[in-house]
């Protein structure tokens, strides 16, 4: 079964690189989207298996998207240069795997696989 990943990234070239990379490894990409509003709209239509979130989307933080994902039990990873993204975008990001920016291919793929393989809590 092909797994789905929502990419929320406001830098066009980075978003395209992530999409191409993940599709080459068998993922079906939802998006990429560059705004909180666009991401929340996609989440109303279909839930991805996992999400990859940039923290700072231009003039807004990704916080509402992370909160919506948590409320729907969709695991996510962060792709950020911030060492502690929760200091900028809230506690909802605390404990999320940060694959860095730019993301290293092996680390990104391992993080997404770990999120997929993780047993549901509860």
Automatic annotation (TrEMBL):
This is DNA-binding response OmpR family regulator. It comes from the Bacteria. GO terms for molecular function: DNA binding. Pfam families: Response_reg (PF00072). PROSITE patterns: RESPONSE_REGULATORY. Residues 4-116 form the Response regulatory domain. Keywords: DNA-binding, Phosphoprotein. SUPFAM superfamilies: CheY-like. One of its GO terms (biological process) is phosphorelay signal transduction system. The modification 4-aspartylphosphate is found at residue 54.
């Amino acid at each position: 079964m092909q797994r789905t990943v929502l990419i929320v990234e406001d830098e066009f070239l980075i978003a395209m690189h992530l999409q191409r990379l993940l599709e080459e490894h068998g993922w079906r990409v939802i998006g990429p989207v560059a705004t909180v509003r666009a991401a929340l709209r996609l989440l109303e239509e279909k839930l991805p298996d996992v999400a990859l979130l940039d923290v700072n989307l231009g003039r807004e933080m990704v916080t509402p998207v992370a909160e919506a994902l948590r409320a729907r039990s969709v695991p996510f990873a962060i792709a950020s240069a911030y060492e502690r993204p929760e200091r900028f975008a809230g506690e909802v990001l605390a404990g999320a795997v940060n694959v860095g920016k730019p993301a290293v291919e092996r680390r990104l793929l391992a993080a997404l696989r770990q999120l997929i393989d993780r047993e549901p809590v509860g």
